[in-house]
């Protein structure tokens, strides 16, 4: 190659590099949080060609326009039907902040708060699957199942058998599973072959199959976990439909076991849980299910007792314009007057959430965080650790759940009468990239159940102190900082 040609190619590459950097400065910050914009710009400036390819692949955190249009159509239908509902009993006694929170959730996610409910927590992995299985065995109308991960294995075989029995009774069973997550499990082919054999109507959620015209940012996921039977009972929480080890060779080698928390709900709120399923089914299949599967709130028996719960389902994800779950969490933390207790397996908050949590400490509140002592995802675990020092210095009590368990439960409680349980982690991925569902509950009996669960975490684990954390080696905290930078790439 001649010197002139080499010089020409070098000049072109320099101009291309400069063009990439200038274009990035114009495009990347648009409609993006400053932290995320800075992380993307850093990646593009340090590794221009690789950085721009990554940005083109995963730089857009919103779903395609057609999907978002469907979500807006669904929200309009929900809003029209909700206008006919009477306000929950006792609404006049709600604190002003709770009433405004409910209004915020309805504005963002369309679903209203509903009174007259009951809910119980199930913290035993086997017991939650058994409880869902028992309800499916008793089904008379329909069964709706939606999980991030679905697997047919020794742990879930009775659940699948219950689905088969329901189909044999002439009951329609529908199932939704996240495309990428469920295809990653070892028994993927056997699982969906079994669903076909049984006769379950199923569909993938958020499939990434560009050759079939199905494409969106490949790391956008539907992370929801819920089951609805006949419209009379619903389940929500953190647990996937798979063995407690996730059947992963690396997990089995380490002896890892997942610790979860689910809730079983009855009452009018079951119609809202079902609406989340119906929405996802319509978005994925174009099938808008009729009245047989669309249970109306007014048809649901309400608990008339003084201890009945007020519940509101809050869906969130890239199909919405706002980060519904983040706004929910922020409002709860800033409204708390006595205590804030957070459980999150992947705790990678944004700047606003860090300020809200540390400000709660400065207001004199009892603030506690439950996390796992070990991690199953290295980059996320290191990013989570990068927040420990600032939290400990602010006065947050950090409780470490012991190995070999991964504390995968996801819940938040404030004071003595308000809590949230669902599928959402308190991390940037759950705020912006995952479709999630959360259940807001007002009622001291429910929070008392959650307090008992939290005490179980304390009894099993240990508290991390600032003095202990200061002894962490520099090599580990360096990795924590690097992982924190990359966590903002959204």
Outline:
With about 500 residues, the chain is α/β, with parallel strands linked by helices. It has 19 helices and 18 strands. The protein has a 16-stranded mixed β-sheet that branches. Strands 8-14 form a two-stranded parallel ribbon.
Summarize the structure in words.
The structure is a single chain. This protein is of the alpha/beta class. The protein has 3 domains: 3-58; 65-96 and 113-308, Endonuclease, Chain A, CATH 3.30.870.10; 324-487, Endonuclease, Chain A (2-Layer Sandwich). Helices cover 46% and strands 19% of the residues. It has 19 helices and 18 strands. It has a 16-stranded mixed sheet that branches. Strand 6 and strand 7 form a beta hairpin. Helix 5 packs antiparallel against helix 12 and helix 12 runs parallel beside helix 13. The mean pLDDT is 90.
């Amino acid at each position: 190659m001649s010197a002139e040609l080499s010089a020409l190619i070098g000049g072109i590459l320099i101009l291309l590099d400069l063009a990439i950097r200038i274009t990035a400065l114009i495009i990347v910050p648009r409609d993006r949080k400053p932290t995320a914009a800075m992380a993307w710009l850093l990646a593009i400036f340090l590794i221009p060609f690789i950085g721009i390819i990554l940005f083109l692949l995963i730089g857009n955190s919103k779903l395609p326009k057609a999907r978002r249009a469907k979500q807006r159509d669904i929200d309009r239908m929900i809003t029209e039907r909700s206008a006919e509902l009477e306000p929950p009993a006792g609404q006049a006694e709600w604190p002003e902040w709770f009433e405004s929170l409910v209004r915020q959730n309805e504005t963002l996610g369309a679903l209203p708060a509903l009174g007259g409910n009951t809910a119980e927590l199930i913290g035993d992995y086997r017991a939650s699957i058994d409880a869902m299985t028992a309800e499916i065995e008793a089904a008379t109308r329909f069964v709706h199942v939606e999980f991030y991960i679905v697997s047919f294995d020794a742990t879930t075989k009775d659940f699948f058998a219950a689905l088969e029995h329901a189909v044999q009774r002439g009951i329609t069973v529908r199932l939704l599973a996240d495309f990428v997550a469920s295809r990653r499990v070892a028994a993927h082919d056997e699982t969906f072959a079994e669903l076909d054999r049984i006769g379950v109507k199923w569909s993938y959620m958020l499939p990434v199959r560009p050759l079939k015209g199905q494409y969106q940012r490949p790391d956008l996921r539907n992370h929801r976990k819920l089951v609805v039977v006949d419209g009379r009972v619903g389940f929500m929480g953190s647990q996937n439909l798979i063995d407690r080890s996730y059947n992963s060779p690396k997990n089995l080698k380490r002896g890892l076991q997942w610790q979860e928390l689910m809730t079983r709900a009855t009452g009018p709120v079951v119609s809202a849980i079902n609406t989340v399923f119906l929405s996802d089914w319509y978005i994925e299949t174009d099938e808008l299910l009729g009245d047989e599967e669309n249970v109306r709130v007014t048809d649901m028996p309400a608990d008339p007792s003084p201890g009945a719960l007020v519940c509101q389902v809050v869906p969130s994800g890239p199909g919405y314009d706002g980060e519904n779950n983040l706004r929910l969490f922020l409002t709860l933390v800033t409204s708390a007057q006595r205590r804030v207790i957070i459980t999150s397996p992947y705790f990678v908050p944004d700047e606003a959430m860090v300020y809200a949590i540390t400000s709660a400490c400065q207001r004199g509140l009892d603030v506690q965080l439950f996390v796992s002592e070990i991690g199953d995802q290295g980059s996320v675990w290191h990013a989570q650790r990068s927040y420990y020092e600032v939290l400990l210095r602010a006065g947050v009590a950090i409780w470490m759940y012991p190995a070999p368990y991964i504390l995968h439960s996801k819940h938040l409680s404030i004071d003595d009468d308000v809590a949230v349980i669902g599928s959402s982690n308190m991390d940037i991925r759950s705020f912006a990239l995952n479709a999630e569902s959360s259940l807001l509950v007002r009622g001291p009996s429910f929070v008392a159940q959650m307090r008992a669960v939290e005490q179980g975490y304390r009894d099993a684990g240990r508290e991390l102190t600032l003095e202990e954390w200061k002894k962490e080696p520099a090599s580990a905290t360096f990795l924590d900082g690097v992982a924190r930078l990359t966590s903002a790439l959204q």
